[in-house]
Write a structure and sequence with these properties.
By secondary structure, the chain is mainly α. It folds into two domains: 18-106, Helicase, Ruva Protein, domain 3, CATH 1.10.8.640; 112-174, no CATH class. Helix content is 58%, strand content 0%. The protein is elongated. It starts with a helix and ends with a helix.
Length: 175
């Protein structure tokens, strides 16, 4: 029984070591600007922006779907910024500034990230061309007389060479 308790305590301690506090959003967005008015926001507005961000706890799901504490904090930060009057693009820019481009569910199509957008299409085209060439190469032409077992001259020549080699080897074995 004691072993189980120590095991659970160890697992909890290791898990707590990986939990990271959320970084603060840039100061330019942290304080409410006196010129901006407080407005009401809907859950759908928050979800729309959260869909574009990855949950910063495990980086596996968007912040609108993830059920972790970090994802809830992201949604709350989005709600607060919307209430302060910030636009969707300003909020996305603020999160990108705080976390880096990794927070974005859809990376920018520039630099190395351009491969994410271009490579699937290139791979698809190359595989389609390769498949087409392969199918064209293995295409079988039916013989003129489908009922007979006619062979092409190339196959007959190859078969004759093989049979001669087999006969020669058998003669060598028999001695």
């Amino acid at each position: 029984m004691r072993f189980k308790i120590w095991l659970l305590a160890g697992i909890w301690a290791v898990g707590m070591a990986f939990i990271q506090p959320l970084p603060a959003l840039p100061e330019r967005l942290a304080a409410q600007d006196s010129t901006q008015q407080v407005r009401t926001t809907t859950t759908e507005e928050v979800r729309e922006i959260a869909r574009l961000l990855i949950a910063p706890c495990c980086w596996s799901e968007t912040a609108d779907m993830h059920q972790s504490q970090a994802a809830r904090q992201v949604r709350e930060q989005i709600r607060q910024l919307l209430m302060q009057g910030y636009t969707k693009q300003q909020i996305l820019d603020a999160f990108e500034e705080a976390y880096g481009e990794r927070i974005l569910a859809k990376p920018h199509a520039r630099g190395f990230n351009l491969l994410v957008w271009v490579l699937p299409g290139v791979v698809l085209m190359v595989s389609m061309i390769g498949t087409w060439k392969f199918l064209k190469r293995i295409q079988v032409i039916p013989p003129a007389n489908a009922g007979s077992k006619a062979r092409s001259p190339r196959q007959t020549e190859r078969d004759r060479a093989y049979l001669e080699r087999v006969e020669k080897e058998l003669d060598e074995i028999e001695g």
